[in-house]
Amino acid sequence: MEHVFHKITPIFDKSSKILILGSFPSVKSREAKFFYHHPQNRFWKVLARELACEIPDTIEEKKKMLLKYHIAVWDVIASCDIEGSSDSSIRNVEPNDLHVILDHANIVQIFTNGGMADRLYRKYCLADIGKPAVRLPSTSPANAAYSLERLTEEWDIIRNLL
Questions:
Q1: What is the CATH class of 2-161?
Q2: Cα–Cα distance measured from residue 87 to residue 159, given in angstroms and rounded to the nearest whole number
Q3: DSSP code of 11?
Q4: Residue 16 CA from chain centroid, whole number
Q5: Tens digits of residue pLDDT in 6-46
Q6: Helices of type H across the chain
Q7: Using CA atoms, how far apart are residues 118 and 102, in angstroms rounded to an integer?
Q8: Residue 81 CA, distance from chain mean position
């Protein structure tokens, strides 16, 4: 268990309409300094299907895709004690200040990527933000109960907002 600080800058601009929040970056994402960088995480595949576009490969392509489709991405946690990438090990949470995004973008809906992100959002952010989030099933490889097709069906709500 180690205390880790979130060092990945949120992706958003003033045109962002939806905000997708994860819990905390995986080891692979922390190493790459970018969201959902583990090769088995299905976030980029699901999002590309929802947006009917090519799956982005590079970090720059991923940023461009998010901004083109008015999607902001960040995580609920600014720092915590964590063992590797295990959400279930998270302790001593310090939340991110979501106003960094919400005060500068016209966010109409907040989504959480998985149960842990949803629980953390409700515990640490909801009272301050005053905007409920919609929980989506996690794109993590740990969520083996969901196939890529099933994830895409559940994430369809995003396409409808854009």
A1: alpha beta
A2: 27
A3: B
A4: 14
A5: 999 999 999 999 999 999 999 999 999 999 999 899 999 99
A6: 27-32, 43-51, 59-68, 99-102, 115-124, 126-129, 148-154, 156-161
A7: 17
A8: 19
- CA pair distance 128, 96, nearest whole angstrom: 12
Q: What is the pLDDT of residues 37-70, one digit of tens each?
A: 998 999 999 999 999 999 999 999 999 999 999 9
Token output for 56: 């982005």
Please name the residues in contact with 75: beta carbons below 8 A apart, sequence gap of 6 or more: 6, 8, 21, 22, 23, 24, 25, 35, 96, 117
Angle at 127 between CA 123 and CA 133, to 5 degrees: 70
**Distance in angstroms (rounded) separating the CA atoms of residues 132 and 73:** 16
Within 10 Å of residue 5's Cβ, how many Cβ atoms?
A: 10
